[in-house]
Every structure is written in structure tokens, then in C-alpha cells.
## 1
Amino acid sequence: MSQNVGSEIKLLSRHTSIYGLSNILNRIVSFVLLPVYTRYLSPADYGVMDLLYFSMAFVGIVLDLGITSAMSRFYYDSEDQAERNKVVTSTFYGFGVGSSVVILLLLLASEPMARWILKEDGYTDLMILAMAGLGTEMYIKVAYTYMRVRQRSFTLMVTALTRLVSQLTLNIIFIIPLGMGVKGILLSTLIVNVALCLFLIPYILRETGLAYSWPRFKEMISFGLPLIPSNFLAYIVKVSDRYFVNAFSGLTATGIYTLGYRFGILVNEFVASPFGQTWIPRRFEMYKKGDSERIFARIFTYFSALIFFAGLGIAVVTKDVIQIMSDAAYWEAFRVVPLITLSYIFASFQMHFNIGIMIEKKTKYILYTNVIGATINLGLNYLLIKEWGMMGAAWSTLICYIIKDTLTYWFSNRLIPMRMEWGRFLKLAALAGLMYWPLTQIESGNPILNVLLKSLACLTYPVLLFIIGFFEPGEIRKGWDLARPYLGKVIPAFRR
């Protein structure tokens, strides 16, 4: 590990650990409340909530015009902070205000939209609340992106956790004593979003000023426009399965599948998302430095080791965790978790494979990839879900992410060659695959004890990597040097 790789890993580790802690605390709070949700919301309620959430996400993709990618990309075009600030303020004015106007217009069509999405009458009030929450979400997204490009991971963590605790507190109040169900969850989201906007918008604009650059905004629009259909199609791969499950199996099956999906996506929440929040904007700056190809390849290897390790743990303990934390009506959800977990492991590789596309600003290739992926996904969803229900949905998701990875890597490698360490990657994947089935067979008769035993067994993964010769000379020592300062904050013996 050269000094360049080592220093970059250290920076990524510091910010990723903060974002990761935020996501872990987020999930801990959510899981504490899971028994509340699964007892006060029926599987059908869960299905309604999920379909509304993902429908708003579809609208949001069109409204934000690739805002996160555009802002992250253009922020680093200049070394002058005043010019960087104009990127931020132009984003606030252009994307934020524009999306609010569109939301107001869409509110007029809330009744037919609710009927079309949920296939039943009586959900117009829920659609209105969901739309209003989306309008405020656009401003929050700009503020969060600003904190990431400024590498203010701790500030972002505190803000996100404050938002989470406030929202979940209101959820409990609205669901249990007031009995508002899904409506209470959507109302709490709107209340907290409004309060957060009133804090974040003045906070950001005090730092950036009010200057606006129309030419810069037009450049960002040109960069982001190809991402609208691209992101829309990518989201089809992510969520269209819910609509097909609802169509073929009903809202109850959709709710059960949704719970399993939320466990499967944990590998994204714990590893890929916190890592990406630092890496996605950072890689543009890193490319300007020497030896970037080798650094990118090595970072991909280490990232793969971490996400396979985490994915293995999630896949083997989820059956027992669901039995501990949810009503029996939801227990079948565990069946889809291993496939969804593996799907999101493959999905996470795209932020490594698309570097050439993003650096060269050839976002049309992302569009091509997503057109192919969405087309295949819709076809597989129809064929597989109609025949095998939620298991067909999980297989469809996995197949499509593998295809998207392959296409993304091929397109990007034509622009900027990236020589990944494929031999080491295959060792990581093969070992995780071989360990999975034996670990799932651990059975003590007590689900709590099962979680403990399976978790301990998963810890043998890095040991077995050492045995099969995964690590190169000096990597363990340098990795230990990197980890020791963090361990020393918890265990005094490691400070020496």
C-alpha cells in the first residue's frame, strides 16, 4: 500500500466511518420500532406505504435533473471558492424552486394518481401528504450534497440523526395513541422536513452568499438532463418489482416482500451508501492526481472485501432477526433477503465502474445501460413474478444488476481504462459464497442465540482470507496501523 493509497484510504475511512455510524444508528432506531410497525400496520398498510414512497421517488428523479451528480461534478471544476459557491446557490434557486412549482401543479392530480398507483379508492389524502413531503425533500437533498462536497461528515451525521429521531418520535405519537397509521408516518415526514428546511437553507446560504450563475446553471442542466431518463430507468430496476408483486399477488404480499427488501438493502445502508457519500465526490479530485488508476483499483478491492463480509453477515442472520422483531405474518420475508443483499452488493460496484463515464461527462452511456437494464428488468418481472411471486422479483433484481455492472464497466473502460484486481475479487466472492450455506444451518432452537452464533461464525471470513492467500505482503501491518488509532479511542491498550 503506497503512501497515496494509504492516505486516501485513511481519508475515506474517516468520513465513511462517520456516515456509516449515522446509518447504523438510523437502522438501530428503525429496528427498535419495527415491532411497533409490524403490529400496528398490516402487511397491506406496509404495501401502501412502500408504493407511495417509491412513486414519489419516481417523481423526484424527474424533478431533480441529476442534481446530486451535477453539483458534485461541477463543484470541483474550479479551485476558487466563490465559483464553487455559485454552483451551490444556482442549485438552490434553479432545482429547488423549479421542483416546488411542479409539485404544486401535481397536487391538483393527486386523486387520479392515488387511484392509479394503489388500484383502490380512498388514498387521496395520503398522496397529498406524500407530494408535499417530496417538495421539501428537494431542498434537503441540495443541503446534504453541499455538506458532502465540503467533507462535513460529522455535521451531516448530526443533522440526519436529529431528523431521524424527530420523525420517529412523531411516528410513535401518530401511530400508537392517535391511531393514524400510514397517514401519521407521512405527516411526521412533512412536519420534520419543513422544520429542517427552515434551518438548512439559511445555514447554507449564509456561507455561500446569494450570487447566481446562469451560465453555470445551464451547464449543470446540460449535464443532468441525460440523467433524468437514465435515473428514471435505473429506478425502474430498483422498484418496479413492488408494482408487479402488487398486481399479481396483492398488497399483503407486497408488504411482506417490502420487509424482506429492507433487510436486504442493509448492505447498502451500512457499507455502500456511507462509502459512496465520500467516494463519489472525492474520486473527481483524486483523478487529477498521479497514479489514480492503481489507487482506484486498490480501493475497489478493499471495498469489495468489506461489502462481501457485511453482506454475508446480513444474509445469514436475517431469518432469526425477523422472527425476533416482527409479527408472524411477516416471517416469510426472510426468503428474499440473500438475493436482495447480493443484488445490492453488485449495485454498489457501479460507483467504481462508472468513473470513466463521469469524468469524461459521457452520461449518455449511463442512459444506454439503464435503457437495457430497465427493459430486461420489466420483462423478467412480468415472467418471473407472475410465476414465482416475490422470489421471482428477487431473482429479477439480481440478474439486472449483474447485467448493468457488466455494461457500465465495458462503456467506462473504453473511455478511461481501469484495471481491477479481478483475481483477488474472485477470492472474496467465492469465499463468501462457500460460507453462506453452512452458516445458515446453525440452529440452536433459540433465534437470539442463533444470531449470536452465526455472527461469531461470520468473523472467520477475514481469517479464511488470510489462509487462502488473499492479502499481499505488508497489507495486514499497514491495515493495522490504519485501524489502531480508531481502536485506541475505544480500547486504551491499542493506543500504544
## 2
Amino acid sequence: MIFGKTKLELKVGVFVFIGLILLLVFVLSIGGFKTWSSGYRINLIFNFVNGVKLGAPVRFAGVDVGEVKNIDLQFKAAENHTNVCLDVWIRDVVRIPADSTVWVNTLGLLGEKYIEIVPGKDYAHALKENESLVGVDPVPTNELFSKAQNIMSNLDSGIARIVNKEGTLGRLLYDDKVYNELEALVADVRKNPWKLLIKAKEKK
């Protein structure tokens, strides 16, 4: 009886063990087997990262090749300035030229931030473990709104000048005298196109 109970427990244990192994393989497959992949770390330096979070994807030439592992703020007393240092993990098979361009990009409608690396041409000097690359700072949202407001303000001002008959376009649209003179000039040129040739010769 004891032997039968032990045999049953052994079967249950083996079954549970196999289930845990399958679950582990499933989880790792979702994560891209990053735990088993070899890679290296590099540092990306920014002044502003616009909401990049830990685990954010890193893309090289449009392909996912790594992720952000750590975000650190570094204050440089000599420059009286704070930099954002992103510690990113890159797959070992990827070589990033030292002249590559790096910036923060936005993925989809939800606005998820990720790191985009556009490869350079200097593969002879590819980045190695713990080496750094300075990124291009994204434009803050408030600055974009400010520029849009300035454009709209200038557009409103231009429309107001036209409505008030100011400027060349305003006078042309609303001043009958300018319109009549322009119409008379066009009519005269149509009747006497040779006048254009005389003027061209005079200029020469």
C-alpha cells in the first residue's frame, strides 16, 4: 500500500515538473528568449528623453535588437548640466557604428516611447561594451504647441493685414486702382506684345 502511494506521488511529481518546464518555455518564448541570449551593454546620452521607460524597445535599422535596462541621471558640475544616461542591452550579433544616429521615437497611437538607432557607416569603429553614444533630443510637446501657436498667430496677422488692405496682396485684392492698373497693363501687353521685346533689348 505504501509502495503504491509512493508510486502515485512520483507520477504526480513528474507530471507537475513537466508542466512547469512547459510553462517556463512558453514564458521565455513570449520574451524572445532574452534570458538565453548573449549581448552587451552600451550607454546612450540625452538631455531629454520624453518619457522613455525601463524595458522600452531598442531598434536598429527598424529591427528590435534590445531594450532599456536602466535609466540614470548624471549631473556634471563642470558644465552645470544634468544628462540622462540610458543603459541599454543589445544582442551580441548586432554591431552599431560609432557614427550612428540615435533618437527617441513614438510607437503607435498609444505613444509608447522607444529608442531608434539609424546605422552609420563607420563599422570599423563599432561600439563596444559600456561605450557611449550621444543621442538627438526629442522636441518637447510644449515646444511643439508653442511653435504651432506662433504659426497660427502669424497666419492670423497676415489675414488681418489682407482684410485691412495692407501689403501688396491686400491692396491687390481690395484696391480697385491697383487692380485696374494691373488689368490695363495686361491688356496693353496682349495688344502690343512687341513692347516686351523692346524692354528686354533696353535692359541688355
## 3
Amino acid sequence: MSYYLGIDGGGTKTTCAVGDDSRLLTTATAGASNIVRVGETQARESLRKSVMQACVAAGIVPSDVSRVCVGGSGAAHPELAAVVRSMVGETVSCPVDVVGDMEVALEAAFDTGPGVIVIAGTGSIAYGRDDRGKTARAGGFGFAIGDEGSAHWIGRTAVNSVLRASDSSDDAGESSLAKALFKLWGVTSLMDLARAANSIPPPDFAALSPAVFASEDVIAGEVLRRAGRELANIAAVVIERLFPRESVDAVPVAMTGGVFRHAAMVREAFYNELCALESRAQVITQVVDPVEGALRLARRAGGMGK
């Protein structure tokens, strides 16, 4: 019996799945492991912890593992991939493959087939593959200049929207959304909120997103619907680039990431906007778990096909 690890390393959490030749045995979750966002020390600890916890839960030791595949944001860059490979190699003794988060998500959604995956987690990107293996992407330019619809974008846009509302209303600071943001950042006024938002180093805007998801405030609803529309726009771009209208009647589209998983309003806005932009889109309603794709790629690299 051979054992395989699939790891999905993100800016919020790291999930490790253990599987044998055909089954998923268990998963374990640790902290963030996106090196760019959290640094090498935390990334190393999160990767180690997720692997060790998953192995213990599966009743194996790291030396039993035959192959590992890690998918992570930005991890496909050769320099970062080498660092991640070395980090995981401190815990396991088998070959370790490192690919981008969009590759494991696409694999989880469509196996080796065609389709478009839209990721909305700490960051965001749309990535697709046609039936000939050609790929294309849209978005994913990072939190400082892009990643529209992501958790970071939602948090930042919520702060911006609350502050802009204060320009025309003296009651903006009394809204339920404003109070939730105040509490999370430990501030008591709109001016303090603005100062915190503009601090250096920048604050963790993504950490505000759960409060926006949970809020029934009108501004929160507007932010979430806009997020869905932004994500639909990048999905439509990838569809247009990969699937000529004269040759493809239907294009499968899947969603993954914490924003889609936890914000029904974003999913609804995404679906409605994408269907309006691209009538061929067939949106899979179940949110995909990328770690399943990482595990599948580990098995395939280890010679076990799927």
C-alpha cells in the first residue's frame, strides 16, 4: 500500500490530505503558508504542522509517504517552489512536487478535462484549460493592485465604502457594519478606522471579510454583490480566450475558495452576472476543495493514475 499527500497552502490556512492508492483517508488544517504573505518561518511551521497532524490522523508516519504535491498561491514560481519543496522535504523523505494553487483547483474540479476554475480566497484568479490542453488566466495580480472579489478586496472595499458613506451621512459610523469593523481593529471612530487602514505595514484586510459576510448592512450587501460581479468578469475573459463561440456550446465553470464557500450572496451574484455575460457558462454549484486536486496529482506523479 502506498500513501500520498496533497497540500493546499493558502494565505489563510493550509490543508493537508492523506490518501492511499484510491481513497482519501483524512485531512488536517494548520495556519497560513503563503510565503509572500506570512514569511518563511510561519509557512514552514504551517506546512510541517499540517503534514504531521494529517499523518497522525491517518495512522502513518511521514516516512510512509510515497509522493507529495503542494499547491500554493505564487508557488509555481521556480524560486518559491524550491523554498516550499525544501520546507516540506524537512518532514518527508519522498519526492515533492510544487505547483500553483490554480493548477490543483482545476484538477479538483475537472480532472484532466476542460473547464474554468475561479478562485476567491485571500486572493483571486480565474484559470482555464480547453480540450487540447491550452490554458489561460485572468486576474491574480496581487492584493495591492488587483485580486478583485477576494477576501482582501472585500475587506478593503468594505472599509472604503463605510468611510465614503460618512462623507454624506453623519450616521455612517453607527451602522452595524461600521461597528463590526471597529471591533475587529480595536478602534472607536471613523477617523481611527481610516488611520488603521492606511497604516504601514498594511493591515490584514482579509481578516475583515467574515464580518462582511455576516453583516445584514446595506453596504455589506453592495460589496458582496460587486465581488461576485468582479469574479464573473474574469471568468468570462478566460471563457472568451479559450473557447471559440463557433466550436463550443457549453463551458463548465467551477468555484473554489473561502469567499465562495462562506458568502452565498457572492455565489449568487457571480452566477447571475456570468450567465448574463456568457450564456455558454455552466456553473457547478458545489464549491470545489482544491486539496483533492493536489492529492490526485500526487497519486498521478507516483504512478497511480487518479
